[in-house]
Amino acid sequence: MNQEALRIRTKRFAVSIIKLSQGFKNTPEINIPRNQLLRAGTSVGANYRAACRARSQREFFSKLSIVIEEADECLYWMEILAEAELVSKNLMEKEYNERTS
Questions:
Q1: Using an 8 Å Cβ cutoff, are 71 and 46 in contact?
Q2: What is the CATH superfamily name and number for domain 3-100?
Q3: 25-77, pLDDT tens digit by residue?
Q4: Which residue, among 6, 7, 41, has the nearest Cα to 21 in the 3D structure?
Q5: Is the pTM of this model over 0.85?
Q6: Which sign does the torsion angle of CA 64, 70, 76, 82 carry?
Q7: Are 87 and 81 in contact (CB under 8 A)?
Q8: In angstroms, how far is the first alpha carbon of the chain from the final one?
């Protein structure tokens, strides 16, 4: 997959996370995991764009590791939301599969 395709894919993932979170119930116990998922999900694309502007291969890999960490954090928050039965795993299936593919 080329750089431009990944830029589009990571941006699409961010938009998908935003739309997903809009469908969550508005309860106190869901606010923290929802906000954390939003933060991590939207930073995947932003950090990938930063990696594409790296001045060296070393800097690129360093910034890319942040992208991977944020994507993994998304997975964590989706698992928390599902296991705490705050959100159905089926509701997050598209985003979950994007993260793990």
A1: no
A2: 23S rRNA-intervening sequence (1.20.1440.60)
A3: 999 999 999 999 999 999 999 999 999 999 999 999 999 999 999 999 999 99
A4: 41
A5: yes
A6: negative
A7: yes
A8: 13
Q: At what angle do helices 57-83 and 28-52 cross, to 10 degrees?
A: 160
Residue 20 has pLDDT above 70, yes or no: yes
DSSP result, 88-100: -TTTTHHHHHHHH
Domain ranges of the chain: 3-100
Which tokens is 27 given? 């309860």
Distance of CA 67 to the CA centre of its chain: 9
Distance separating alpha carbons of residues 25 and 50, to the nearest angstrom? 33
Distances (CA, A) of 42 to 27, 55, 64: 22, 23, 15
Phi first, then psi: give them for residue 2, nearest 5 degrees. Answer: -85, 170
